[in-house]
Design brief:
6-stranded antiparallel beta sheet; alpha+beta; globular; DUF2218 domain-containing protein; about 35% strand; UCP028291
Amino acid sequence: MPTSQARVQTAEASRYLQQLCRHWSHKFPVKSTPEHGTVPFGEDRVCTFDAEPDALLMRINTTDPAGLTRLENVVSDHLMRFAFRESLGEITWSRAT
């Protein structure tokens, strides 16, 4: 299953994780704590978030390689909107299969 992950340096990782999970919980059966969140965008598309003291780790798993880029963009765009007070820099995703 194609996987993509990104590590974003921020001291507000838990806050952003919770905002992202709360945002998508209106549409998907999200599970989250202040340290970990899972957003099932569909049966074959899941995004997980892990908050560390200095970074937010994001991981996307999907069976649809073409949809991977789209999900990377959706997650990145939402994070950037929630973090408008902070310059997170460019979010770089790395892929594994």
